[in-house]
Amino acid sequence: MAKGEGKDVAEESSNIGAAGTKVKEGIVSSLKGINEIEAEIVSLVRNTVSNALKATATVANEGVNVTKDVVKGAIQATEEVGTGLILSTKSVAKGIVMGVSDVGGDVLDVAGQTVKGAVKGAAEVGADVALVARRAVDGVIEATKEIGGNVEDAATVAVGGAIDAAGAIGNTAVRAVKDMLVGVVSGVKEIAGAALPHSSEPSGSGKATEVSTKQRSKREE
What we know:
Blueprint: H1 2-54, H2 59-81, H3 85-102, H4 107-125, H5 129-147, H6 151-167, H7 171-181, H8 184-192, H9 206-220
């Protein structure tokens, strides 16, 4: 009987192995496709933003307007397709920051505006505001790394933009966004300079202080 049971277990393991392999291959294929789509969105947004800003003589003023326009377009696209806002937000945010950087615009200002627009748009279409905020912040940070900008400053501005936009939605949204983003700025600091103590906040970075203070209080609890 023990031998029979052992055979059954072996067959079951074999079946699970085959099913697991099939799922793994399917997921790998899908994720490769997603990566290609994300790269295409980044390229599309980057080129669109830089071309739009090149066409105007006032990059400083138009940067914010173009950013709002691009975010709206992305949100409307996901409404028409019926899905994809959370997936595409990171790529859109990354493309905007890189496009503005290409023409010498104010990357930090646009970073904050991009995240604000994404959070506001997510609320309007009923998407998960906190997840969209996190994806937008991740996109800003990734773009800033690639263009060689100050990642810590970008993270601080992006997180501040997310919290500000959530404040216009309501207390529940603010809590959700803060919980999702807590530790982002501190995490970036640790990566940027492992020797820096947590207490040395740069002057004027109120949002960074707010986020890291909350993180410390959570640890103390």
